[in-house]
Write a structure and sequence with these properties.
single chain, 54 residues, elongated
Length: 54
């Protein structure tokens, strides 16, 4: 059963108030090297938090 209220909503339309990523943000999201760097940074931060709690 299709919902009629959701059928009329178009993402990124004038009434949809979320921000759309720019070209630089889209490039960073698809860059494998940047994703690897982010992954390492996040893991280091998690290790620091866990080490402080023990």
């Amino acid at each position: 059963m299709e919902r009629k209220a959701e059928h009329n909503i178009k993402a990124y339309g004038n009434n949809f108030t979320t921000m759309t990523p720019g070209p630089f943000a889209l490039k960073l999201r698809t860059c494998k090297i940047w994703q690897l760097i982010r992954f390492i940074i996040i893991n280091i931060k998690m290790l620091i938090v866990v080490r402080k709690s023990h």
